[in-house]
Fold this sequence. Notes:
The protein has helices at 6-9, 14-22, 40-48, 80-86, 97-104, 149-156; strands spanning 27-30, 56-63, 66-73, 77-78, 92-94, 121-125, 134-140, 143-147, 159-161, 164-165. By secondary structure, it is an alpha+beta fold. The protein starts with 5 loop residues before the first helix and ends with a strand.
Amino acid sequence: MAKKSKKQQSGGTPATVALTQAGTPYTLHAYEHDPASPSYGEEAAQALGVSPDRVFKTLVADVDGELTVAVVPVAGSLDLKALAAAVGGKRAAMADPAAAERTTGYVRGGISPLGQRKRLRTVLDASARAHATICVSAGRRGLEVELSPDDLAALTAATVAPVARP
């Protein structure tokens, strides 16, 4: 079992540890997660007082048998055909939640595009570039990290493509 860094022991997550190690500027936002909330992303936007087009959800899809991460605004939904096309695939479907959790090391509603157990191919929706900063999960429910979309794309080696629909 891997040793936890001091940052992780003091409440950090693999996502915040990755950001800190990379020297990437970010702001951490915590809020009280309501387990009864029907949408993790909309709950985050509301709790933080941030427009839902600036809060992005991390979704894991299966593209031609390979798990792939899509980061799209909570105000919209993932276009699976566009995701497949963005990574040169033919067919995409949402991944099995248990496989997504096992592979990323995060639980549903807290999956971050950063600091995943196994680095997955990532696609960031092009709408992110319309904002100076966006919020994504920091690795657990009730915790968001705000950073520039360019920094997110660089840290995850993301392809930036239009993969969301309103």
